[in-house]
Design a protein that fits this description.
The protein is mostly helical and 210 residues long. The chain is built from nine helices and no strands. The termini are far apart.
């Protein structure tokens, strides 16, 4: 294929090359774009990278394979887009109420995706060498923002003198992640999202409070 002057670069298959998981468009286009990313996250969590396919995502999203390629140029960018919509706690721990309540609010929001983090994290680690963008995206767009958000909340609580001085965001995030992984394994049995969030927030508070 002959590239015209000033034409955006294309892949060998003829599709436009764009940054991983990022494209722009009108309202309807963006709705389809988001629905494909959501389907990508579901398929990646269920199948892992090894069985993750563009066809599978297209079927889940209810669109054609050609439509998927209009939004994401390849399988890798599609998986990256899915990972990027996993929730962080940025903004949620800055809400109203004390630190304990704000942590509960953050955990409750994060529990809308309880079954996705564990398998996605696993497949990102397994394929960290052959597809490094997966783990890099999970770190930069999900895990690091969570840690930073907790650090901000903990700084406020530390100034109020209600938590231990040596507690940091990465410790709290590791505890939250561990609790979610335990629930993914069925230990303990999951209840309603609100009840689970309360239990998790109470567990975290016992760990960090004075």
């Amino acid at each position: 294929m002959v590239k015209k002057p000033d034409e955006p670069p294309r892949t060998p298959a003829g599709r436009h090359v764009t940054p991983l998981g990022i494209r722009t468009g009108g309202k309807a286009w963006l709705q389809i774009h988001s629905s494909i990313a959501a389907a990508s996250l579901e398929v990646l969590a269920e199948s892992g990278w090894g069985l993750f396919t563009v066809e599978g995502v297209a079927d889940r999203a209810g669109v054609s394979k050609r439509t998927v390629y209009r939004h994401y140029p390849d399988k890798e960018s599609l998986a990256v887009a899915g990972i990027r919509i996993l929730p962080t706690y940025d903004g949620w721990v800055r809400g109203e109420g004390g630190t304990r309540e704000r942590i509960k609010q953050a955990v409750a929001r994060g529990k809308l995706f309880p079954h996705y983090l564990a398998p996605v994290l696993s497949t990102c680690i397994v394929h960290r060498d052959d597809v490094p963008s997966l783990l890099e995206t999970l770190n930069s767009h999900v895990l690091d923002p969570r840690i930073n958000a907790f650090d901000e909340a903990l700084a406020d609580a530390r100034a109020e003198g209600v938590i231990k001085e040596d507690i940091h965001g990465f410790q709290v995030d590791a505890l939250v992640t561990g609790l979610l992984l335990a629930q993914y394994r069925g230990l303990p049995e999951m209840n309603t999202a609100n009840k689970d969030a309360t239990v998790m927030a109470d567990t975290i508070w016992k760990f960090i409070s004075k």
